[in-house]
Write a structure and sequence with these properties.
The chain is an alpha+beta fold and 245 residues long. 34% of the residues lie in helices and 25% in strands. It has helices at 14-35, 43-48, 59-74, 90-106, 195-208, 210-218; strands at 5-10, 82-83, 86-87, 112-117, 120-125, 134-138, 146-151, 157-164, 173-174, 179-180, 185-192, 224-229, 234-236. The strands form 4 sheets. A 7-stranded antiparallel beta sheet has the order 1-4-5-8-11-12-13. Helix 1 (14-35) packs antiparallel against helix 4 (90-106) and helix 4 (90-106) runs antiparallel to helix 5 (195-208). The two termini are 31 Å apart.
Length: 245
Amino acid sequence: MGTVFSLDVRGGEPTAVHAALDEAVAGLHRVDEVFSTYREGSQISRLARGELTADACAPEVAEVLELAAEAERVSDGWFSTSYQGRLDPTGIVKGWAVERAARRVAAAGASGVSVNGGGDVQLLGSPGAGRPWRVGVSDPLRPGGLAAVVSAAGAAELAVATSGSAERGAHIVDPRTGRSAVTDLVAVTVVAPRLTWADCWATAAFAMGSREGLRWLESLDGVEGLLVTAGDEVRCTGGLAGWLG
């Protein structure tokens, strides 16, 4: 998937947890094989070219496409799996894959799991008694600095996802034009229980711009956001403060 993944796991029976870790890592490699748009022979590339039907693909493909359709519906089309008229579910696959890996390890009995995929993080449980997981949100305008620190205190599961142009340039597409999204934003960070959705909502909100993106994030239950504009203005949803610390 073109990025680095890290897993931090606490507690559980060592043999079972190590086996689950091996399965989770193998699963991430499998996702890359199936969904990579850079591999001509991947199932998603062949599906996009009409060489395969969805029914002939791995079951995960139908699952991801169904989730993507839901994301498109909730975002009123601001999240899309169409890029220049071609199927491209990249915007949902990484968050879904990270969340799936984290849940696989937690199901093996780990008491705390943190999986980080290129800066997007799924947190489950806790790293220790009375200690919450904490995630630093990079400052898009000050390399090496933090814009905020998110604490998962009081949550059994929490995800943090960021979309923006600071590190990868203008890679987010405006689905209305098919071209790079031109907005006043440089980054959007979304906090939600599940990374599958947090990743989608951060992408959609970035494409919307700060005013519409903030309004839309406020309308979603259990979702908070931090938006940073090119003018160094920070805008937050009303409940974000409850997750900072």
